[in-house]
Protein: monodehydroascorbate reductase (NADH)
Organism: Chenopodium quinoa
Amino acid sequence: MAEKHFKYIILGGGVAAGYAAREFSKHGLQPGELALISKEAVAPYERPALSKAYLFPEGTARLPGFHTCVGSGGERLLPEWYTEKGIELVLSTEIVKADLFSKSLTSAAGIIFKFDNLIIATGSTVIRLTDFGVKGADAKNIFYLREIDDADKLVEAIKAKKNGKAVVVGGGYIGLELSAALKINNLDVCMVYPEPWCMPRLFTADIAKFYEGYYTNKGIQIIKGTVAVGFGSNDNGEVKEVQLKDGRVLDADIVVVGVGGRPLTTLFKGQVQEEKGGIKTDAFFKTNVPDVYAVGDVATFPMKLYGDIRRVEHVDHARKSAEQAVKAIKASEEGKSIEEYDYLPYFYSRSFDLSWQFYGDNVGDAVVFGDNDPASSSHKFGSYWIKDGKVVGAFLESGTPEENKAIAKVARVQPVAESLDQLSKEGLGFASKI
């Protein structure tokens, strides 16, 4: 059985893996010290592009255009970059067994990869309706979006079902972004989700009201408070209808499902401490196993700003946690110390001509400011969240770079708020004073 040994292994091929590789190269690497192992066939790329420009009918994003680390304004790490840096890029390779205590990973082909230091950057996988035994959920043209292969299949279906009917199951990030992308492709789009409003993990009812109104004005049908319980298919095995719990039946040529993800931690069960669905780490992303680190979606880490521990599924945290882990590894080797991870939660999305950013914590009382009329031409509005008399979170739609920086500062500084009415009246003026 073939065996290879590396000083460092990054397990995973997503955003966090690419940023970790770049950080290692910044600190200096000897050829053959680092391997990046991914089950995907391509070098790490900026995953958010898949639900945005990749699906647009014109001027679409394609590789090699969005390899990491171009998403944060950095150098694009093409496959040749890894070769130049002496990094072994091990693609199309699934690891089926991990023994963290003997420091070995075994691939499906039986190759054993030994490591001195491991960064777990396995990310998340999508939750599938077939997991719940939903009738007909294995029909053709029911799509999930996680990897570039998924996006390619969806693009082909969009071309094949020109001007057809699309049903999007789910009202979160993926649901909102994909509904917009499908509409831009001139499909007849219907969104279905069980919650009382879209994006409930982040949006208040007031914020959601704007987006639901805006999407409706764009011709997207929204059905709330029910779920898909079955799918009908034609003689070719392609989906033709979506059966809803409330009894309605929707015609469909394409179905896209976005009902959440789950962190890929199965390989490490019983070997690492877990909490809140992820692998528990310290402020340097070290696990309880010596020389093993976990970053991105799979890590449950100390949120210094709020004095608790959390797991964050977002590209910004994937990038920053990866860099922090590598810095910690290199500092440990040199007998030095680095500062603890002090993360400010950040989320963003783009669809149609909309673009919002959120910073901080969405807890406590919320107040909306600005013009949140879905029919407005400016649609610039936002929200603050106030807890214990302090502003702890801020959201802004259609902000300028300066305005987005201002709301980020508010969330970090947590200034005292006199009253909800005052915040509502001041709006962005409040942020500009901080």
